[in-house]
Amino acid sequence: MATVTLNQAEKTYANGYKAIHGINLEIQHGEFTVLVGPSGCGKSTLLRMIAGLESISDGEISIDDKVVNKVAPADRDIAMVFQNYALYPHMSNYNNMAYGLRNRGHSKSEIDSKVREAARILQLEDHL
Predict the structure, then answer these.
(1) pLDDT digits (tens, 9 = 90+) for 51-81
(2) Which helix (H) or strand (E) element contains residue 80?
(3) Measured between alpha carbons, how far is residue 78 from residues 7, 84, 100, 109 in Å?
(4) What radius of gyration do the chain's Cα atoms show?
(5) Are 31 and 48 in contact (CB under 8 A)?
(6) Domain formed by 4-75, architecture
(7) Could you read off the pLDDT of 95-126 as tens digits, one per residue?
(8) Which of 10, 39, 53, 113 is most solvent-facing, going by the fewest CB within 10 Å?
(9) Whole-structure pTM over 0.90, yes or no?
């Protein structure tokens, strides 16, 4: 796991709409964090910024003290869990969990071990 730090992170779209207003947040190694709020409040935008799927307009996002504002998503070495079990609905829950590991070239046995361990920790074994 890693420490994730947001320092005055902002997201302003080309049309001038400010979706994220200078958020400061630190998620320590091992912490479990939940973002809640009404639809359209910026939860998904914030997660996409942390993952690198959405650019950051101002401020900094750091993972383990390394600023990752311009680091590609695949090189950030982080993972997230979403409220829906299946990020890719056409794939099984197991394959959704294994997807990133397969893309990084892990062996089948290592993928199976890691997916099952993550499912155990999250109490999702019955959904694999």
Answers:
(1) 898 999 999 999 999 999 999 988 888 877 6
(2) none
(3) 18, 18, 10, 21
(4) 16
(5) no
(6) 3-Layer(aba) Sandwich (3.40)
(7) 988 988 898 899 999 999 999 998 888 888 99
(8) 39
(9) no
The one-letter amino acid code at 21 reads: H
N- to C-terminal Cα separation, the chain: 23
Query: What residues does CATH 3.40.50.300 cover in the chain?
Result: 4-75
Alpha-carbon separation of residue 128 from 94, 101, 110, 115, 116 (angstroms): 5, 16, 16, 9, 8
Q: Using CA atoms, how far apart are residues 121 and 116, in angstroms rounded to an integer?
A: 9
Name, in order, each residue with C-beta under 8 angstroms of 17's C-beta and a sequence gap of 6 or more.
none
Residue linked to tokens 């504002």: 69
Q: Any idea which residue has 């199976």 for tokens?
A: 112
99: its two tokens? 């997807």
Starting at the edge strand that comes first in sequence, how are the strands of the sheet with 66-67 ordered? Answer: 18-27, 4-12, 58-63, 66-67
E strand map for the chain: 4-12, 18-27, 58-63, 66-67
